[in-house]
Amino acid sequence: MIHTVLTTDWGLRYPIIGAPMAGVAEAPLAASITGAGGLGMIGIGSTASTDFLERQVDQMQNARPYGLGLMVWALKKHPELLDAALAAKPTLISLSFGDPAPYIARCHRSSIRVAVQVHDRQEARQAREAGADILVAQGSEAGGHTGSVATLPLLQIVLQEAFDLPVLAAGGIATPMGVAGVLAMGAAGAWIGTAFTVCGEARTQAAGRHRLIEVTETDTILTHVFDRIQDLDWPYEFPGRAIRNNFTAKWHGQETIMTNTPEASEEFAAHRGDYSVDYLYAGQAVGLVDRLRSAADLVQWLGQGAEDYLHQRIDMLVGHRASQ
Ligand SMILES: Cc1cc2nc3c(=O)[nH]c(=O)nc-3n(C[C@H](O)[C@H](O)[C@H](O)COP(=O)(O)O)c2cc1C
């Protein structure tokens, strides 16, 4: 058994968090991850309704613990999403992509813990001072929207900065050795998105699943094109990592021209679900995703495998002592 705050205090079997992923991680995926001994999270998109959130929570039935992932920048326009999230009383709320300070005390008053995804030292400091319970060091190799510092340096920076808080690692983790690696560095767990996107319980369409299995680690791009074409107010410092396609080939780096070209919007609207044009958010760990499996199977493989891997690596120290 791996002992971190997630297993000792939160009661998880494995220190694995299923990342909130709007449009992909909904109740079936979250419940399955929780049922397998991790903690599943539901991603609440920037344009989601409170009805959607409530329906998702209803579907969780008795699956506990679980979390809801909110985007801070969207709460300014849709404060009702935070009200609905608080009323649902999840175990955890994540407040990412913006300053979480105005919202943390309300979560605590409802006895809900708060995780914040951070992307550099300053954001880590800001989230810690604002009272976050958990910091998630989200590296730039992560799928979906993210910052510009890679997981390896970022995790070290956040561990230095948040010495008194549990820190989770996000971005690029999709195997037992990846989970074991971040635990060995001092993370309390792994916050994993891309690897779960192909699971049967994820909302990913069949064509998307097959594409994700087919592509490699060099096939992703950090881009603003999909936000700009949908007229979403994502803060500029958080581009989204998606699978490259014909649309990114044509418009990445040409976003202003794109938004002034009506044919670009028409083309995008006409090809929803066609991944040669539409977006498929995924991180560089997509190069490690090579099969369709259930979320429960994946949690068990990652969690048990990390435990076994750490046991094997202890030999490195034992061998060293024996040879002295
Ligand atoms: C398809 C997809 C959608 C995502 N949507 C969200 C989201 O709605 N809210 C959020 O906080 N993070 C979102 N993320 C980022 C994840 O929370 C997480 O940081 C990331 O998946 C971790 O890196 P990995 O993809 O390499 O595992 C998304 C990631 C992916 C792949």
Q: Which regions are unreliable across 5 or more consecutive residues at pLDDT < 50?
A: none
Known CATH architecture of the largest domain: Alpha-Beta Barrel
Question: How many E strands?
Answer: 11
Kindly provide the name of the CATH class of the largest domain. Alpha Beta
Largest sheet: 8 strands, parallel, barrel
Order of helices and strands: HEHEHEHHEHEHEEHEHEHEHEHHHH
Which radius of gyration do the C-alpha atoms yield?
19 Å
**What fold name stands as the CATH topology of the largest domain?**
TIM Barrel
Structure description:
With 324 residues, the protein is of the alpha/beta class. The chain has two domains: 5-204 and 289-295, Aldolase class I (TIM Barrel, Alpha-Beta Barrel), CATH 3.20.20.70; 206-270, no CATH class. The chain is 43% helix and 15% strand. The protein contains 15 helices and eleven strands. It has helices at residues 5-8, 27-35, 50-59, 72-75, 79-88, 101-109, 121-129, 151-161, 176-185, 206-214, 225-229, 246-251, 255-259, 262-270, 295-322; strands at residues 16-18, 39-43, 66-71, 92-96, 113-118, 134-138, 144-145, 167-170, 189-192, 220-223, 240-243. The strands form two sheets. An eight-stranded parallel β-barrel has the order 1-2-3-4-5-6-8-9, surrounded by seven helices. The radius of gyration is 19 Å and the shape is globular. The chain binds flavin mononucleotide. The site of flavin mononucleotide (FMN) has 29 residues, from strand 3, strand 4 and strand 9.
